C-alpha cells in the first residue's frame, strides 16, 4: 500500500509521487506518516523531510510551511523545498556567512528582537541545506 505525496512551493511542484513512508518536520517534532494515516493539518518548521519508495530514501530541506495529511494523500505547502541533489552548497555557505556577519553586526549596535529572529531563521535554513547536501555527498542515510 502507498500514499501520494505532493510537495509544492509558490514556484513549482517539487514532488508528486506514490511513496511508502514520509517523515516531516512538524513544529512540535518529527511526524512519521504511513498510508491510511488519520487526517491531520500542521505547520512545519525548518527541517528535513524524508520519503521512502521501496528501498530508496529521498531527503529534502524544507524551509517551513504547512502539511495536510489524508488517508491516501499528503500535501506539503513549503516556503522553500530542495532535494539533496538540488542544493547548491556554495550558495548555502555564502547565505550562512552573510547571516552570521549580519547577526554579529546587529548585536554590536543593539539588536531588534524581530530582526534577530529573521536572521536566526536564515542561519537555520543555510545550516539545514548544508547538512542535507553533505549527508548525500558522503552517502550516509538516517
Ligand atoms: P539565499 O540567501 O541563498 O537566497 P535564502 O535562505 O534567502 O537563501 P530562500 O528564501 O529560503 O533562500 O529560498 C529562495 C529560493 O531559492 C527557493 O526557491 C529555494 O528553494 C532556493 N534556494 C535557496 N538556497 C538554495 C541553495 N543553497 N540551493 C538551492 N536552492 C536554494
Task: Please provide a written account of the structure.
By secondary structure, the chain is an alpha+beta fold. The protein has 2 domains: 3-83, F0F1 ATP synthase delta/epsilon subunit, N-terminal (ATP Synthase, domain 1, Sandwich); 89-138. It is built from 2 helices and 8 strands. Strands 1, 2, 3, 4, 5, 6, 7 and 8 form an 8-stranded mixed beta sheet that branches. Helix 1 (89-108) runs antiparallel to helix 2. The protein is globular, with a radius of gyration of 16 Å. The model has no long low-confidence stretch (mean pLDDT 94). Bound molecules: adenosine-5'-triphosphate (ATP). Residues 11, 63, 80, 82, 86-88, 91-92, 95, 122, 125, 129 line the site of adenosine-5'-triphosphate.
Give a brief rundown of this model.
Helix content is 32%, strand content 44%.
List keywords for this structure.
ATP Synthase, domain 1; binds adenosine-5'-triphosphate; 2 helices; alpha+beta; 2 domains; 32% helix; 142 residues
The CATH topology annotation of the largest domain reads as ATP Synthase, domain 1
CATH architecture of the largest domain: Sandwich
Q: Averaged pLDDT, please?
A: 94
Secondary-structure-based class equals alpha+beta
| Percentage of residues in DSSP E strands | 35-45%
Please report the first level of CATH classification, the CATH class of the largest domain. Mainly Beta
Count of spatially separate domains: 2
What is the helix fraction of residues, given as a range? 25-40%
Q: Secondary-structure element order, as H and E?
A: EEEEEEEEHH
Q: Give the low-pLDDT segments.
A: none
Shape: globular
How many beta-strand elements? 8
Q: In DSSP terms, counting alpha (H) and pi (I) runs of 4 or more, how many helices? A: 2
Small molecules (ligands, ions, cofactors) in the structure: adenosine-5'-triphosphate
Tell me the span between the first and last alpha carbons. 23 Å
CATH superfamily grouping of the largest domain: F0F1 ATP synthase delta/epsilon subunit, N-terminal
Q: What's the Cα radius of gyration?
A: 16 Å
> Main β-sheet, in a few words?
8 strands, mixed
Amino acid at each position: 500500500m502507498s500514499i501520494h505525496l505532493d510537495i509544492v512551493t509558490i514556484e513549482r511542484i517539487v514532488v508528486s509521487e506514490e511513496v511508502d513512508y514520509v517523515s516531516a518536520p512538524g513544529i512540535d517534532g518529527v511526524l512519521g506518516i504511513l498510508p491510511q494515516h488519520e487526517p491531520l493539518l500542521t505547520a512545519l518548521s525548518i527541517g528535513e523531510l524524508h520519503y521512502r519508495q521501496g528501498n530508496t530514501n529521498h531527503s529534502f530541506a524544507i524551509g517551513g510551511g504547512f502539511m495536510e495529511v489524508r488517508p491516501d494523500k499528503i500535501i506539503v505547502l513549503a516556503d522553500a523545498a530542495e532535494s539533496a541533489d538540488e542544493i547548491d552548497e556554495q550558495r548555502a555557505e555564502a547565505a550562512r556567512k552573510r547571516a552570521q556577519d549580519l547577526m554579529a553586526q546587529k548585536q554590536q549596535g543593539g539588536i531588534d528582537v524581530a530582526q534577530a529572529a529573521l536572521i536566526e531563521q536564515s542561519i537555520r535554513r543555510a545550516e539545514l541545506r548544508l547538512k542535507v547536501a553533505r549527508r548525500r555527498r558522503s552517502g550516509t542515510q538516517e
